[in-house]
Amino acid sequence: MIDIDAITVRFGGLVALNEVSATLSAPVAGIIGPNGAGKTTLMNVVSGFITAHSGRVMVEGQDFLALAPHRRAQKGLRRSFQKEQIADDLTVLENVLVQTDWSLTGWSAKRAEAMDMLAVVGLADRADKIGGALSGFERRLTDVARCMVGKPHLIMFDEPAGGLSVDETRQLGDLIVQIHTLTGAQTVIIDHDVELISRICAETLVLDFGRRIAFGPTADVLADPRVKAAYLGTEEVAQ
Amino acid sequence: MDRSLLRITPSGAAGLIFAAASFVFLPMVLGSYWLAIFTSAAIFAMAISGVAFMYARLGMVSLTQVGLMGIGGWVTLRLNYLWDMPFEVNMVLAALATMICGWILALPALRMRGLYLALVTLMAAGGLEILFATYQFPNGGEGFWGVKIGSNAPFRRPALAQTPEAYLRYVIVVATLGFLFIEGQRRLFPGRAWALIRRSEAAAMAAGVNVTLYKTWAFGIAGAIAGASGALLAGSLGLLDDGTFRSSESIMLFALAVVGGARFWLGAVIAAVLFRVLPGLLNTWGVDTDLAFVIFGAGLLHALITAPNGIAGQIFDLVANLRGKKGKTHD
Ligand SMILES: Nc1ncnc2c1ncn2[C@@H]1O[C@H](COP(=O)(O)OP(=O)(O)OP(=O)(O)O)[C@@H](O)[C@H]1O
Ligand SMILES: [Mg+2]
What we know:
The structure holds 2 protein chains of 2 kinds. Chain A is α/β, with parallel strands linked by helices. Chain A has a domain at about 1-75 and about 190-235: Rossmann fold (3-Layer(aba) Sandwich), CATH 3.40.50.300. Chain A is built from 9 helices and 10 strands. Chain A has helices spanning about 40-45, 70-75, 90-95, 105-120, 135-150, 165-185, 195-200, 220-225, 225-239; strands at about 1-10, 15-25, 30, 55-60, 60-65, 75-80, 155-160, 185-190, 205-210, 210-215. In chain A, the strands form 2 sheets. A 6-stranded mixed sheet of chain A has the order 6-7-8-3-9-10, with helices on both faces. Chain B is an all-alpha fold. Chain B has a domain at about 20-245. Chain B has helices at about 10-30, 30-60, 65-80, 85-110, 115-135, 165-185, 190-200, 200-205, 210-235, 245-260, 265-285, 290-305, 310-320. Chain B is globular and about 55 Å long. Chain B starts with 9 loop residues before the first helix and ends in a 9-residue tail after the last helix. The chains are: A alpha/beta, B mainly alpha.
């Protein structure tokens, strides 16, 4: 469970997040909102890359805002970035192993876990392929596998389906819904693809101009007239 | 254990063969003038591997390497005149002391990036230059600085390497171990952390990598390598001169590491040959050795414009093409 309590973030005069609160408890939860709504900023606050002006974030009952980013990762937080972050000169397996290198678990156990997760995402046969030779989708899947190792509590994906085809997005969605059963971790996913969100997320938080405009079961939220006005409205403008 | 730790790549095999051939043949064919030059070149190849590694793996520009070699040399000479320990013990202690200096250098340097990092390391090199010029290197005198006027007290060379020929072989072995140590680090968890840090520090942190720790570790490794090569330099002559450790030499060493190709063992060898053998060659031809600087400059322009992986990168690409392999080089 992730408990976001009155988070405010300012960049100079811009209020990127304005007292945003939400308690996300579904195995897969979504965050949606138009461009610039503050979705990535919220993820950056939780993962420690941006310091909130005020507010609190608790993950599984632990206060996270006091920890350095790498300590949060060691405490079970995972995140991906809008652009996948795969090192080109490491193999797929090495890109996953990085995530658990800090832990004192035995080498063979860590390797076995990494191979298991690569099998889950369907990359077991390409474990020794060098990062630079991967396709966009393979890179994204490697990123997902990396997020799944090391007994995570909370995994956050920032627009994981960006740049993927309809088919690949479907595969990725199927993968994400399995994460909770496979690892026990809760997943939070930011995406513009409302179809993907409504298919895999039980609950959804909607942000607009740094404010929470709706939060609850995804179907209810998507039916909310304010969400339609704010989110779907700009969606039309964007297209 | 990591299974890939002991994997031998074509480039690695070539390097080991090159080292073995140099070990066997160089001392057989070289006269005393060239023995001294090649010994120095092998020592600097090892020092260059330290800066090259920091640049290739983390994009960090260190302009203190020769200054750190001076620290290693100073510690070695000091210990030599202080106690009766064998050269090897002194060399290891010098490497450790220099590693700690590398960490101290990392403290301010890690808050900086790019040009600012380079400037901080250059300032450190300048400070060391002044220290060495002021206090000189120990030669058997009294007191902490151990300097006396007149002839030097005897220096204990390694028991295994009493002749110049044997010393060149000794240096080649130690330098090879240095290269293997760095390569081993690269293949294990530090290498994975460095690769991700270079990709993006944020991604590394998100993967639980302690970025400061691993950058500091890199400084420590480059420092230890510099310290050991400083010890070897002290061992080759039995004395050191502060003129060897000017900050300009550190800049030159870094520039040549880029010219040679920072990602490859061959790059460090090429850089060391340019740094030490080329001036020696010009000298025997009766040409002004300052011509070497012109050649270095041309080499640097060449590297910046056409060869981001340096001369070594071009050579390995060429070999790969000749063997009909497509794609880019991996070291
Ligand atoms: N580091 C920063 N410095 C200054 N302003 C920032 C910074 N990061 C984000 N912002 C601003 O904060 C607002 C929210 O940005 P954020 O990236 O969180 O939006 P988002 O909801 O993720 O949008 P998108 O869908 O385009 O990814 C934007 O106006 C953005 O310009
Ligand atoms: Mg965003």
